[in-house]
Amino acid sequence: MTFSMKLNNKKFYQFLLCGAILLGPTACSDFLDEQDPSNLQPDTFYTIPDHAEAAIAATYAEMRFFGDGAGIFSANWQMLEAPTGTATTETGQNSDLNNLYALIYDGNTGHISNWWNGLYRVIANANLAIEKIPGIQFPAANEAQKVRLMGEARFLRAWAYFYAVRLWGDVPLVTKPQTTESEDFFASRTPQEEVYKLIVEDLQAAEAAGFADFNTNGRVSKMAVKAYLAKVYLTMAGFPLSKGQSHYTLAAEKALEVINYAKANPSTLGLFNTYKELHDEKLKNRMEHLFQIQYNTVVAGFPLNDFFPNFKAVTYSGPSGTGSTVPTKSFYESYETGDLRTKDQEGWFYTTYFTNGTGDRFELGAPYVFKYFNIAALGGPGITPTRLNNLNVNQMRYSDVLLMFAEAQAELGSVTTPAYEAFKAIRDRAKLTTPAAGTYTAASFKEAVWKERWHEFAYEGITWFDMVRLRKVFNEETKKFDNFVGHRNLNVSGGAPLLEKHLLFPLGIQEMRNNPNLKPQNPGYQQ
């Protein structure tokens, strides 16, 4: 892709409608009367507050590239799961996906280019909003709305750059709308440190933008921003920047701000009592869901369908082919005995279901991911399936905040009571007994938190980034942590080890052809 952003013709107009449908009304009937939408251009579009609202809605809508297709039996999100070793596939038709599982992906792998293009579309939309919204005249009484919209644009840009810098390291840092006449149209790569600097600045601006403390409408909230700041600081403390103690302190402080808010507002923010509530579409954007990508079948249906068993009749549609991301037996068996997350249809997995969604129970023959199974839409005992899967995709859960806080505190050298309580809350919900705080050293507590992260956030696009920032990987046989380089994923990848080069993904070959300034390729991959 190039970095240009022309708000022309029907495609952008569709983005506006998609975003507006999912994020609520923006008085777009007035906007529709302004001019022929097929002739929208930046200079004529950004003239009234409704235009600003619609542009931010369009930027939110662009996040849904996360679930877009990546060839037969595959979607973009699988790029973050296949290399982790926690999943395998029951299908073999998608060579790009197979190469991700086998750790032999390269710059021709379709998922990689899809991620690059998707992230830079979000960045392009956000950049345009950040440049144009200040010039729009808002009524004096609505000045706070303007500040909020600018904050949302900066949050969304930070969201995209945070993915990009973790995936590729040095990436082009584009902060202005681009056209073919722009001096830096063929942008060069920027050192990671500078990319992180912008991410932090954008998140700090968003934190001060007057967001609601917590939102149930799908828009980012102040607590979500604080949670992202905690994650960015925690990532900067680890590899490759290795900021260490200063940033573990910042991560702990930001996470604690969210935890303190949850304690003061337990009916608004906190852990769900049951795991099933996490995939109840009536509870989207509530309680544990700090930030989600919004889905609705009117615009785009829930995209994580490749977790279904392959050709097994677990939904109203009968046997249907999916099964391109399924748990490895070794990972499933690495959970502690009695962990509720492994209990059939109660936690993250299921080993039985009901024929065609509502019939007789039958054995699946293996564990499959239940974490995203929408019973209301797909069927269950006594339930007539709606066939409309409107679940959202999680990006930040409150449980992540608890474990980030516990980990950062351990890295600071002590097992504090608040850190222990945060860690224990995750295990309490899983019905696990937690050793007394005094039995842990800072080092053993840290590893216990890491292990809990592996088991809590499986199949949420988080594990890969934990592997990279820690340069550690959970060993399912020893229940300890191996160094990243040299670790072998059990039952996946044909026994190939993780290599130094796998700490970053390669840049897409076509991207480097389009823009020679992106060279050199990341180490270990062909140009």
Automatic annotation (TrEMBL):
Record-linked Gene3D superfamilies: 1.25.40.390
GO cellular component, one term: cell outer membrane
SUPFAM superfamilies on file: TPR-like (SSF48452)
Pfam families per the UniProt record, alphabetical: SusD-like_3, SusD_RagB
Keywords: Cell outer membrane, Membrane, Signal
Domain RagB/SusD: 367-525
Primary location: membrane
Domain SusD-like N-terminal, residue spans: 30-234
Protein's cellular compartments: Cell outer membrane
Leader peptide range in chain numbering: 1-29
Family, per entry: Belongs to the SusD family.
Name of this chain's protein: SusD family protein
Organism name: Dyadobacter soli
